[in-house]
């Protein structure tokens, strides 16, 4: 049996070799492509691409692919040689500029990457891939104003570019050194409380090399009583993927605000335009209340979807709060409509003082909408929220909120 197999191999081997020799450049190119992406065998794919180029030395697409293969195989000098040869031939293909600029970007040669991208954009001004890469390079260089220009140009070309939309939101956080803001929240209750609530917040945000820092002061009139609170928040960056939220607050007016509040979350910007968060919030009125939070978000074209939960354990049971949010972006990362629906009370809401008693364990339903828009460096928001809460067993009341906000960046 083994002799038969050996004989068959000897008979077929010359035929196989002849077929390989007679394969066209396109066939070898296709085989190299399959070998690289399905088998992840870059060395074998490089050999096939080089063989294809021997048959068709001026086949630009194969040369570009060979340069990419060398890049993926971490043979940087060989990749540069291929791209420099294409440059000397005066190649103007869009994929050539993308591949060459990507090589430089991935190897921290950002100046060379921008040079190649700009040359590519002269020849392909509507290239979404080149504009996106330009925004990424400038963002990695901490050149946030240039990154913002690049991503804005891309979103003009295609507002539904999912990756661009996610990156635009991240760039927005760094696009200015300073930011001042003011918000006003009005709450009306039909049964639960006899007096309306008024809350005003004033904030200052400063961007640093480590991330943003926010100082906020809040004034509230609740239960016909006045109270103030001071808060400090920071968003230190750990890497390109991870950053933290760290927050703390203090108030002498317990009941209107918690005496102390703290919070820490780990946030991640994940592949495929996903993002996630996990952390805790702590409120202290007369006793500590610990809440654990997790959320997952996803950008898709003009949309951002987010689902967040707060879990509050105690000795008897575990209380849950869930909120779903959908944003629809119209232009930039500052211009969007938002819709929100959920159940339960979260510590980020202006009604977080209701967590001090047992009412938050009863049924609460909420639904609301928000509109944000920008005029140059002025940013405006208007929102409304409706709550239906079981504030006593089998007794429900309604709450209506209106929130206005203004922010100035400089």
From TrEMBL:
Answer yes or no on keyword Signal: yes
Q: Which InterPro entries match?
A: Beta-barrel_YaiO, TPR-like_helical_dom_sf, TPR_rpt
Positions in coiled-coil regions = none
Q: Which residues form the YaiO beta-barrel domain?
A: 177-349
Q: Which domain of life is it from?
A: Bacteria
- What keywords were assigned to this record? Signal, TPR repeat
According to the record, where are the TPR repeats? Answer: 128-161
How far does the signal peptide extend, from start to end residue?
1-19
This protein's record includes keyword Kinase: no
Q: Name one Pfam family in it.
A: YaiO
Q: What is this protein called?
A: Outer membrane protein, YaiO family
Source species, please?
Chryseobacterium taeanense
């Amino acid at each position: 049996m083994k002799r038969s197999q050996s004989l068959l191999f000897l008979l077929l081997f010359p035929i196989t070799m002849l077929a390989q020799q007679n394969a066209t450049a396109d066939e070898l190119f296709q085989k190299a492509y399959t070998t690289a992406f399905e088998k992840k065998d870059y060395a074998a794919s490089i050999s096939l691409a080089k063989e294809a180029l021997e048959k068709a030395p001026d086949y630009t697409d194969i040369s570009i692919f060979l340069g990419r293969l060398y890049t993926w195989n971490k043979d940087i000098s060989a990749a540069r040689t291929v791209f420099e040869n294409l440059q000397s031939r005066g190649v103007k293909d869009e994929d050539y500029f993308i591949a060459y600029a990507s090589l430089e970007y991935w190897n921290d040669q950002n100046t060379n990457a921008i040079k190649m991208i700009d040359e590519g954009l002269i020849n392909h001004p509507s290239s979404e891939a080149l504009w996106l890469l330009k925004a990424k390079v400038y963002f990695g260089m901490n050149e946030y104003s240039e990154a913002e220009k690049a991503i804005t140009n891309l979103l003009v070309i295609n507002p539904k570019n999912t990756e661009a939309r996610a990156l635009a939101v991240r760039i927005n956080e760094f696009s200015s050194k300073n930011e001042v803001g003011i918000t006003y929240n009005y709450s009306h209750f039909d049964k639960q409380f006899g007096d309306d609530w008024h809350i005003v917040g004033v904030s200052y945000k400063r961007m640093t090399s480590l991330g943003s820092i926010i100082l906020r002061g809040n004034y509230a009139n609740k239960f016909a009583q006045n109270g103030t609170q001071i808060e400090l928040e920071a968003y230190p960056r750990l890497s390109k993927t991870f950053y933290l939220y760290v927050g703390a607050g203090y108030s002498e007016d317990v009941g209107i605000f918690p005496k102390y509040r703290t919070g820490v979350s780990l946030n991640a910007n994940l592949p495929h335009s996903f993002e996630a968060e996990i952390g805790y919030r702590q409120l202290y009125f007369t006793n500590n209340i610990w809440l654990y939070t997790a959320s997952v978000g996803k950008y898709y074209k003009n949309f951002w979807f987010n689902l967040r939960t707060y879990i509050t354990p105690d000795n008897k049971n575990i209380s849950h709060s869930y909120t779903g949010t959908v944003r629809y972006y119209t232009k930039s990362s500052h211009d969007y409509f938002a819709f929100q629906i959920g159940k339960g009370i979260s510590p980020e809401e202006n009604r977080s003082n209701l967590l001090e008693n047992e009412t938050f364990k009863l049924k609460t339903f909420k639904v609301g909408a928000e509109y944000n828009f920008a005029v140059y460096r002025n940013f405006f928001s208007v929102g409304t929220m409706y709550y239906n809460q079981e504030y006593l067993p089998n007794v429900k009341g309604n709450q209506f909120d209106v929130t206005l906000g203004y922010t100035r960046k400089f």
